[in-house]
Design goal:
Blueprint lengths: L6 H4 L4 H11 L6 H8 L5 H11 L3 E2 L5 E2 L5 H20 L6 E5 L6 E2 L1 H6 L6 H10 L3 E2 L1 H11 L4 E9 L3 H10 L7 E5 L16 H14 L3 E7 L2 H4 L6 E4 L9
Parallel strand pairs: 3-6, 3-8, 6-7, 8-9
Antiparallel strand pairs: 1-2, 4-5
């Protein structure tokens, strides 16, 4: 996922959850006219945040910090999706030459939920940088297990993230500390000089940057079996046998 988003955009996808609540409430309005008017209203932002917290099984620690629960629907959904992806990868072993998996970082390899909730689902680039520097984000356990399972079987693991190149060294250190295998390659969005394989240069959209980088990975001889991401823009553009969409109702990135 990209390192830049706005507080308004962040909850756009989650608003679909709140919309159900908002439209359901119109049944109590008492008139067809009132119902019609209310059904056109956007989702209540406060209700959306509560729905997102419920999805993650939100709880507070002694210091008042937010965390997600291991028994939450988020974890159950993630486990199911990653288990299906692992089965597919296992089926391809021995069939595909030089198999590889590509992993996004934010809300794919790592979960940012606690930090997001602590910041009321708003984005501050300074606070994000501090979180990366401090190793605040936690490993997404099913993805961590998949990455190590794959690496132990000779599958190359690549990280491909919208975090910028200056955030690369600390990000890789955090991922290693969390237990991720050493990657065959790690790609961070260029800020100074774009590589030749990205003709869009420093103005690439997320889809152009990520699909172009996957094309580059395959040009080196690897075959991407799985491409995991929490945004559809992580997955569009091809160059993967199976794109794997992980749940993230907190924000949407085109």
């Amino acid at each position: 996922m990209s390192g830049k988003w706005s507080g308004l955009v962040k909850l756009a996808a989650a608003a679909a959850i709140g919309a159900t609540v908002a439209s359901g409430a119109t049944a109590l309005a008492g008139s067809d006219e009132s119902t019609a008017a209310r059904s056109k209203e956007p989702a209540n932002i406060g209700q959306v945040k509560l729905d997102v917290k419920a999805y993650y099984g939100d709880y507070l620690d002694a210091a008042g910090k937010h965390h997600y629960s291991d028994t939450s629907r988020f974890v159950k959904d993630t486990n199911r999706i990653v288990s299906d992806a692992k089965r597919f990868l296992q089926q391809q072993l021995g069939r595909v030459k030089n198999p590889a998996v590509v992993l996004d970082v934010d809300d794919t390899s790592e979960v940012t939920y606690g930090w997001e909730a602590d910041n009321d689902f708003g984005f501050d680039p300074v606070k994000q940088q501090q979180a990366i520097d401090n190793g605040t984000f936690v490993a997404n356990k099913p993805v961590l297990e998949l990455a190590n399972w794959a690496a132990q079987r000779g599958v190359k693991v690549y990280f491909l993230t919208g975090r910028n190149e200056f955030q690369g060294p600390r990000s890789l250190k955090n991922l290693a500390n969390e237990g991720y295998p050493a990657p065959a390659g790690a790609f961070f969005k260029p800020k100074t000089t774009a590589p030749d394989y990205l003709p869009c240069g420093l103005t690439c959209t997320t889809v152009q940057y990520k699909s172009g980088t996957r094309a580059h990975i395959e040009a080196t001889g690897a075959k991407i079996v799985l491409n995991l991401g929490d945004q559809f823009s992580d997955l569009e553009g091809g160059y993967a046998l199976r794109p794997v969409k992980l749940p993230n109702p907190m924000y949407y990135l085109p």
